[in-house]
Amino acid sequence: MGESSKNNRELYEKTNPVFNTAKMTLFQLAQQGNPHAAGISERMGLTEDTQKSQSFSMGPEEEMTFRMILETRYHMMGSLAHDSGFRVLVDLPCGYTPRALEAAEQGISYIGLDLPPVISEISGIILSMISSENKNLVRFSPVDATNGGSLEKALENIKENICINTEGLLMYFNDAEIHSFLENIRKLLDIHGGCWITADFEIISEHTRIRSAIQPGESSHDTYNVLNEKADVNVSMNGLMVRYGHENEDVEKVKAILSEHGLKAERIRIGDYIADTKAFSSLTPEQGSAVLKAVEDVAFWKVVSTGSAENSTGADQRFTIHKELTDGVLGLRLTGRLDSLTAPQLLAEYEEQRASEVIRKVQIDCHSLDYVSSAGLRVLLIIHKACKEGLALNGMNELIMDILEQSGFDQFFVCDASETVM
Question: Domain coordinates of the chain in residue numbers?
Answer without folding.
Answer: 3-305, 320-416
